[in-house]
Amino acid sequence: MVDIVLLVGRLLLLALLYLFLFAAVRAGIGLVKGSGPGERKAGLALKVMNGPRELKGTKVAIAGPIVIGRTPGADIVIADDFISSQHARVLPQGDAAMLEDLGSTNGTVLNGQRISSPSLLDLGDEIELGTVTLKVVRS
What single-letter DSSP state applies at residue 106? Predict the structure, then answer.
């Protein structure tokens, strides 16, 4: 009698495990494909146009706040003496993005103009940080 109860318990546990795995995989498929009712058009990204060879051509989607600097804790790490440890930050603003200088020593330049307050980024804008140039592109 005890053997039958243990067998039924094991089968029930196995069935619950499979149901959990099925639900987890089904929820994850929409995240991986990027499809479904919440699908959005491509957002903005930053592309390294000029700078260190290992970073050139790198594209980073602006999906959340991006800190650019020399410190290893930055989201985009640039080993350049003209870049502060935390130089600038890019924040998503709906379908656009905002660029903010974080009190860097050498400043942040947007389309040839040094910025002193947060500035709205548009497609095609160029950001200069030291010897590095980033361009705002579609992701």
Answer: S
